[in-house]
Amino acid sequence: MPTDHTFPGRWISAASMIGGPLLLLAGTLMRVPFPFFFPQQLAAVQRAPGLVIGGYTAFLAGNVLMWPAVVTLARRIGVTHPLWAAWGGVFVIAGLFERTFHAGINQAAFRMVRWRGLDPATAFVRDSYTDTHLFTYLSFTIMFGWYILAFGAYRSRALGLTGSIALAAMGLVPLGVLKGTDLFTIAGTLGLCVAFLPLGVELVREGPRPGRRSILLALLGALVVALLAYASTYG
Question: Membrane-crossing residues (predicted)?
Fold first, then answer.
């Protein structure tokens, strides 16, 4: 049966555009009290594990949640500028994968601080920092993807000049393992909020409100997902 539905859909895209940037900003601000580089970041895990690990976890959650927003913006750009949409969307999503990979190393280092101590964890990160792997060759996508997507958004009028510049600021956020918060990180995550939050609110408002049946199904689905998430911790 024909349908005008386009993946990932209005509600998922709106949730991504609103929740993703806010989580990234929250994770960024939680790391403000601690020096930027990895030895100090690992030392901070000993002093304030909840705040440090919570900040990194919030940033990771926001990073993963961003992909529907990127897909939706790329789809809007692609109406008039398909090449900018394709390159920008692919590069940004590859960059999201890259940051998720870095987050896995971060979490492993945090566990090493807990189970082996600060000095072994610091030595491990220092000695392995320049090791070559698949994502070594994709680091450029973390920066340049946002620039390409932002330029495409401006050319296609999917975003105005202010929103496009704000989106491009995300390319300033430092990349790599165990990076804390600096002015570029704050500027980038704030810019992402400026670019995406208005679009998310617009998506919420532009269509019909969900009916009672849809709300009940969504709540049931959320409960099932929560139970599956809990069960996954035993795997």
Answer: 12-30, 50-71, 83-105, 134-151, 158-177, 183-203, 215-233
Q: DSSP secondary structure string, 49-95?
A: HHHHHHHHHHHHHHHHHTHHHHHHHHHHHHTT-HHHHHHHHHHHHHH
Side-chain-facing half-sphere of 102: CA atoms under 13 Å? 27
Residue 212, pLDDT above cutoff 90: no
Of 112, 108, 15, the closest CA to residue 64 belongs to 15
How confident is the model over 62-89, as a mean pLDDT?
98
* Distances in whole angstroms, Cα of residue 58 to Cα of each of 43, 157, 164, 188: 19, 31, 24, 16
* pLDDT digits 0-9 by tens, 126-181: 999 888 999 999 999 999 999 999 999 999 999 999 999 999 999 999 999 999 99
- Could you tell me the CA-to-CA distances from 29 to 59, 154, 163, 170 in Å, in that order? 10, 28, 22, 15
* Beta carbons within 8 Å of 116's beta carbon, 6+ residues apart: none
Give DSSP secondary structure letters for 85-142: HHHHHHHHHHHHHHHHHHHHHHHHHHHHHHHH-HHHHHHHHHHHTT---GGGGGTHHH
Residues 6-28 pLDDT 10s: 889 999 999 999 999 999 999 99
Q: Is 211 helix (H, G, I), strand (E, B) or coil?
A: coil
Please give the single-letter amino acid code of residue 197.
Answer: L
pLDDT at 213: 87
Measured between alpha carbons, how far apart are the two ends of the chain, in Å?
39
Measured over the CA atoms of residue 27, residue 32, residue 37 and residue 40, the dihedral's sign is negative
Q: Which residues contact 87 (CB under 8 A, 6 or more apart)?
A: 148, 152
